[in-house]
Design a protein that fits this description.
Elements lengths: L2 H11 L12 E4 L8 E5 L4 H10 L3 E4 L16 H11 L3 E4 L2 H5 L4 H8 L3 E4 L2 E2 L7 E2 L1 E10 H12 L5 E2 L7 E11 L4 H6 L4 E5 L14 E4 L2 H5 L2 H10 L6 E4 L11
Helix pairs in contact: 2-3
Length: 261
C-alpha cells in the first residue's frame, strides 16, 4: 500500500477543504508515492518523534498539529523544526498533519473528547454553512447532572491534566449541559452562553478572558494538548481499517511542552 492511500483515507474523513485559512494541514514533507513501511501517530512532531520513527522503521508520521505553519526561509540545523525536516528527508519519512479539518470533522477531535467525558453530542457550536455537518466545538449533555466540582475532578482524571483553571462555581452548582472546544476556543464562548451551557471547556485561556463568564457560565481551561490527545485514536481507527500489512504505533515521545508542579 502506498502512503498516498492512507492520506486519502484521512482526507475522506476530514477533507482538507475544511481547514482554517491560517492552517497548513496535509503533506508537510516527503514522497507519498512510497510504499508504507510503518506509521507513527502523534499530536506534535518534534525531533524526538522523528528519531522514534527511525528506530521503529516508520516512513510515515501522522500528527494533529502541523510541524510547518509559517514560511521557512532556510533549512539549517538551528531549530527543532529544521532539524526534524532534515532528518525526515534523509530517512525518506513523510510528515503529514490533519489539524483544523480534523477539529471540524463530525466524529473528529471534539466528538472524541466529548465521548471520553460521557457527553452525548447534540450539535457543533459553530457549524459550516454548507450543511455538511462539519464545524467547531461541541454542545451536548450528560446523562445525569453532576456536582460541578466532582465533574471537573472527573475531567481532570480522564484527560490526565495537572490542574484545571476555572471561574467561580456557585455553591451547589450541578452540571448537565456542556459546551466544549478542544485546543484553543475562547472565541466560541458567546455561543456557549447563548446555548445556555452550564460550563464551557476549552484551552489556552488568558487571565482577562475568564472575566467574560460574567456570572452566566462556568469557564474551565482543560489544556490544549490534553483536550486533543485522543486525536491519535481517531488516526488509528482510520489507518488500521483494512490495513494489516504494516505496523502502526502510538508515539511514546512526550511532546506536551507544558508541565505542572
Amino acid at each position: 500500500m502506498k502512503i498516498r492511500e492512507i492520506t486519502r483515507q484521512i482526507e475522506d474523513f476530514a477533507p482538507l477543504k475544511y481547514q482554517e485559512s491560517y492552517d497548513n494541514s496535509g503533506v508537510q514533507v516527503g514522497d507519498i508515492d512510497q510504499e508504507v513501511k510503518g506509521v507513527l501517530l502523534c499530536i506534535d512532531i518534534t525531533e524526538e518523534v522523528v528519531d522514534e520513527a527511525i528506530r521503529k522503521g516508520c516512513n510515515l508520521i501522522i500528527s494533529h498539529h502541523p510541524l510547518i505553519f509559517g514560511g521557512i526561509k532556510k533549512i539549517t540545523p538551528d531549530t527543532y523544526i529544521a532539524r526534524s525536516i532534515i532528518k525526515a528527508i534523509e530517512n525518506h519519512i513523510v510528515l503529514y498533519a490533519s489539524h483544523t479539518n480534523m477539529d471540524k470533522a463530525p466524529h473528529g477531535v471534539n466528538y472524541q473528547v466529548a465521548k471520553k467525558l460521557g457527553i452525548t453530542a447534540e450539535k457543533m457550536l459553530e457549524e459550516e454553512k454548507d450543511g455538511s455537518g462539519f464545524g467547531l466545538g461541541i454542545l451536548g449533555e450528560l446523562k445525569e447532572a453532576e456536582d460541578a466540582h466532582l465533574f471537573l475532578e472527573r475531567v481532570k482524571k480522564t484527560i490526565n491534566i495537572g490542574c484545571i483553571r476555572h471561574t467561580n462555581i456557585p455553591q451547589g452548582k450541578r452540571i448537565k449541559r456542556i459546551a466544549l472546544c478542544g485546543g484553543s476556543g475562547f472565541e466560541f464562548l458567546p455561543l456557549a452562553i447563548r446555548e445556555k451551557a452550564d460550563i464551557y471547556l476549552t484551552g489556552d485561556l488568558k487571565y482577562h478572558q475568564f472575566f467574560e463568564a460574567d456570572g452566566q457560565i462556568i469557564i474551565a481551561d482543560f489544556g490544549h494538548f490534553e483536550s486533543e490527545q485522543f486525536t491519535k485514536e481517531i488516526f488509528y481507527e482510520i489507518v488500521s481499517k483494512n490495513n494489516a500489512n504494516f505496523a502502526i504505533y502510538f508515539s511514546d515521545s512526550k511532546t506536551n511542552p507544558i508541565n505542572y508542579i
